[in-house]
Specification:
Elements (H helix, E strand, L loop, with lengths): L1 H9 L1 H12 L1
């Protein structure tokens, strides 16, 4: 499942930004 971890690391910042945009 290394691919999954790599994708998570790549899009970690994007996920946080998406969550923030949803909260606001």
């Amino acid at each position: 499942h290394k691919d999954m971890l790599e994708l998570a690391n790549k899009h970690k910042l994007n996920l946080f930004e998406w969550m923030e945009s949803k909260i606001q």
